[in-house]
Amino acid sequence: MDLYQQLIIEHSKQPHGEGLREPFTAQAHHVNPTCGDEITLRVRLDGPAGSPVVGDVSYDALGCSISRASASVLHGLVVGRSVADVGELREAVQQMLTSRGEDPGDEEVIGDAVAFAGVAKYPARVKCALLSWSALADAVLRA
Predict the structure, then answer these.
(1) Which residues fall in a coiled-coil region (predicted)?
(2) Domain 6-142, CATH among 1.20.1250.20, 2.40.290.10, 3.40.50.720, 3.90.1010.10
(3) 8 A C-beta contact, residue 82 and residue 53
């Protein structure tokens, strides 16, 4: 797989969910010290406390196209899903990205995030693709 697949390029040029919005339940700011990528991510949780749903994810991201595209894809995959489902999705994406190319990802499970499977072969870029997912996990925990 090519590192910069068309989907990654499209999401980095026209990101979905970009721009910090209110109201939000929690916010997290993460930095990748290796390359300087940064993201401030806000999550709004809706529904009952026992089974919350991600109502919105908004973010402000600075960095490479992989980092920005990953945040955009994340937005499209998690909004409207339960927090439990989002946790499982994040784990599946992380597994794919940290597999060094051994796990191509299951498109039925991780959707458009499968476009980042090629990134797994470039360990220095894995943190770029995982930055928004880590910030989301942090924000959900804070919520």
Answers:
(1) none
(2) 3.90.1010.10
(3) yes
